[in-house]
Structures are given as structure tokens and as C-alpha cells.
Amino acid sequence: LLGGPPGNDMSRATSPDGSWQETNGGVNGFDSERQGRNRPRTFPYATYLPYATEDEGEKQKNLDVIMENLFIAVSAGDFTPGAVHWTREIRGWLSLKFDLSRQQKLKLVKLYYELALAPGLDISVSERFASMFMVLT
């Protein structure tokens, strides 16, 4: 409406980017192994904070510790409080506007899908896992 062609007033925040293409280097030439989002966030949170934040390497190291403990808890059958606790930690990590790589997100989606449908779990625990599956997808 303001200077744009008619019918092009849809928000770019929710509409897909038409320039997607896959190359030998991954999506749009970037390495897809550690890539988080396709486009940068609309607001650069870390640059406007009045204090220094951890670098990307430290963020990923912290996430690796959380994911390792989650997988240990699930392998041990410790769903309550173990896997529930580490699920809360991942939610907190995501609420800080940190991004998961595609591989990390894929692993977590598969895990939470299986956990949400696992027989014998308390219904409230299954709902937490299903909720996390929905957040990740």
C-alpha cells in the first residue's frame, strides 16, 4: 500500500522467500550442516543489548551439553524428571532466540515425535513432549 504494487502487501515475515535454490554448498551456497535460519532475524537482539553475549561456539557447546543429557535421560528411561527437565532447558535455550542447526532440529523432531507417542508414559509427560514437537515443527 505504501509504494508497493497492488496485491503485494503480504508480510515477508510469514511468506516464503522465492529465491530458494539448492547448490553443491547447501541452501543458497551456505553450509547446511550448522545453518540455522534461512534468513536473519528481523531484529538483531545481541547487538542492542547493554552487555556482551556469548559467541556462537559457546552457544553451540551449551546446546550440545543439553542435547547429550536429554539423550542420556531418554536412553536410561528417565522421562520424569530427566527428559522433562532437559526439554525445559531446550525451550529456555530457544526462548533466548538462539537457533538450532537443521541437523539438531531434525534429531529433536524425531525424538519428540517418538516420545509423544510412546506407550506407558503419563499423559501430562506425553503432552509436554507433543508440545515440544509442535514447537520444533
Automatic annotation (TrEMBL):
Q: List the GO terms this entry assigns under cellular component, sorted alphabetically.
A: proteasome complex
Q: Per the record's keyword annotation, is Signal included, yes or no?
A: no
Q: Where is this region: Disordered?
A: 1-41
Q: Where are the annotated coiled coils located? A: none
Keywords, A to Z, come to: Proteasome
Q: Which residues form the Proteasome activator Blm10 N-terminal domain?
A: 8-82
List compositional bias (Polar residues) regions by residue number. 11-25
Source organism superkingdom:
Eukaryota
Q: InterPro entries, alphabetically?
A: Blm10_N, PSME4
Q: What is this protein called?
A: Proteasome activator BLM10
- Record organism: Cryomyces antarcticus
Per the record, the gene is BLM3_4
